[in-house]
Amino acid sequence: MALLNFRKKPTDGQANAASPELQAFLKGYSIEIMPRTAGKVEDFRDLLPEGTRVYIAHIEGTPIEDMVATAKRVKEEGFDVMPHFPARIIKDKATLADWIAQYQGEADVKQGLILAGGVAQPVGEFDSSMQLLETGLFDQAGFTHLNVAGHPEPNLDIDPKGGRANTYAALDWKQEFSKRTDAEMALATQFCFEAEPVIAWANELAERGMNLPIHIGIAGPAKLQTMIKFAIACGVGPSLKVLQKRAKDVSKLLLPHEPNDVLNDLALHKAANPDFNITQVHFFPLGGIKTNANWAIEHGGDNTAHVNATKG
C-alpha cells in the first residue's frame, strides 16, 4: 500500500492561531515516543506530517525486539526513525553491534541518539555516549545522523559538585568527534520551561566555539501536576520554578500547561537573530502523543521543510 501524506491539515483558523515566527520555529520539529505509547496510536500519519523525525526512547527493561518492531512500524508509516542508544544499558560492543544490525535489517535505521542513559549503575562496559561513539560501529554501519545529549541547565548527574566543567569537557570531545565522522551531528536537549536561560546557554556554547546545531527539548502539553512530576524525575533545573510558581494555585494543578510562552520567546529571538544556534524543536509528549501532535498542528507546526531543515 502506498504511503499517504500528512492527512490531518489545520484549518485556516488553526493556522492563523500562531505567529509567523512560531510557525517558522516549529518547522521540522521532532517528537519522542516509546513502544508502549506508540501502541496507543492507530496511525502516526493521522497526527504527524510526513518526514517527521521520531525518536524512540529506550527505557531500561524494554526488550530490543520491542524497540525494533516500533522502529519498523514508524518507518513503514513514512517517518525518519532515531532510536536511543543508552550506553549504560548496553552490555558490550557485541550487544551494540547486534542492536545496530537488528535496527538496520528490520527498519533501515541510519540515525541514532547516543547518550549515557539515566541508569545509575551501568550493566556492562559502557557508561558514556563517548564510549559508544568510539567503537566506530555507527560509522561502519553508515549512520547519517548521530545526535548527542545537551543540557541547558546544570546537571548534577554529570557535575555532582555543581557547575558545568564535566558537561563542557564532554561537549568539547563531541565537537571534535564531529570533525572525524561522516555523520551529521546535533545536540538534542533535556526539556526546560524558560527561554532566557536557554538563550544564554546557547550563546555561551557559540562563544566557546561549539557549532553543533541545537534541537531544543520542549515538554508538550500536559496537566501541570504531570509536568511537575516528570520535571523532577528528569532532573530539570532552575526553570522548574516556572511550574512551581503556577502550582501555588492548587486549582491549576489539574489544568493543562502548554509550552506557548517558552516557544514564543525562543521563536521571537530566532527571528531577530537568524544565526542563533537553536535550529529545531524536539517535543517530549508528556501529556500524550495525540495531545502534543494536535497542539503542534494548531500552532502552525508543519514539517514540509524537514528535509531542508538545518542539518543534524
From TrEMBL:
Keywords: Oxidoreductase
GO MF terms held by the record: oxidoreductase activity
Superkingdom of the organism of origin: Bacteria
Name of the protein described by the UniProt record: Methylenetetrahydrofolate reductase (NAD(P)H)
